[in-house]
Amino acid sequence: MFSVKLASLPIAFLVFIWNVPCCAAQTVPSSLPAEIRRAMSAVSKDNLSRTVNVLAREFGPRNAYFNQPFRDDKCTPETSITYPENNVIMAAYRFAGMLNYMGYMTRLEPIRLDFTGKLYGYNVVAEKTGAIYPHSFIEVGGHLDSRPQTPGAADNAIGIAAVIELARILANYPNSYSLRFIAFVGHEHFYFQNIGSTSHISTTVDNGDKIKAGLVLDGIGVSEEPPTATSVIIHDGSRESAEIADLYCFAAKTFAIPIKCRIAMDNALSVGSDNLSYWMQKQPATLNVGAWPYKQPFYHDCGDLPDIVNYENAMYTVQLNLALIILLDNGVTPPAPAAATPER
Ligand SMILES: [Zn+2]
Predict the structure, then answer these.
(1) Around ion ligand 1, which residues have CB less than 5 A away?
(2) Domain residue ranges of the chain, discontinuous segments joined by +
(3) What is the pLDDT of residues 245-262, one digit of tens each?
(4) What CATH architecture does domain 3-340 belong to?
(5) Mean predicted lDDT score pLDDT of the chain
(6) How far is the CA of 193 from the centre of ligand 1 (A)?
(7) Which H or E run includes 37?
């Protein structure tokens, strides 16, 4: 997550975050509630915790400058281990393996991570072709990599764990639109911010495919009002992105998900996770965070360990995303979405 730095800079006054009250009622096709409730009941907090532990402890720091994990909670490099590839590639292989095991086809997208071209990593894209709209994609993803000095549990192993859990539960779901579950690389490397998602989106658009929604998860294992679970959905002010945000909170309300859903707008394009890559390329997308302005103990620090993640917040966030994805896939639109939201 990049935005805390931005929020602390003097240019913060340029950022216009506008909190929008959420959602009037809307009819949902009668077959959907049962399907959505079934999917939501399958979410496992233990799965989320297990995946975060694997990513943070076996591959943290998930950074191309490292070929070994940390030995302890003080972030001492484990000198007795040398992986055959750098940590971010090893983590990408693990992500791909888990998705392959669920029956998904996965693709590795090579991404250069430094000026010399020696360091690189992969975006991993798992795809499930839609029966009716194969060339229109609902994409859900987050950044797999971390800063060099941190195991990156809350930022952003938990986001990747959520993507994996969504993929697991939707593996047998009969989707009309094509679904993509993505681990992006290049958000936390300094070569070029968000280079992995930027490259993925431009390739998608160049292929003539349509992005129906880009759903970015970053820092979802934090609540802004503990013990209440919270989700903040940030959009860029475009009508399509604002509709996705409205649909999120509509889903929370309609399916009584115990999470407080709040919408914020960033029409200065300063909220810099991988959502920015979608917004810069005029694609509909939202960023889903647990708290905004971003707050996380041990941000970009060695203390960002699996124990600090609020797994309950993440669990309800996964439920929220499941409900949203199924609503999107069935063409449900929010009631009077962007009516109160000015065009950018
Ligand atoms: Zn970060």
Answers:
(1) 1, 155
(2) 3-340
(3) 999 999 999 999 999 999
(4) 3-Layer(aba) Sandwich (3.40)
(5) 90
(6) 11
(7) helix 32-41
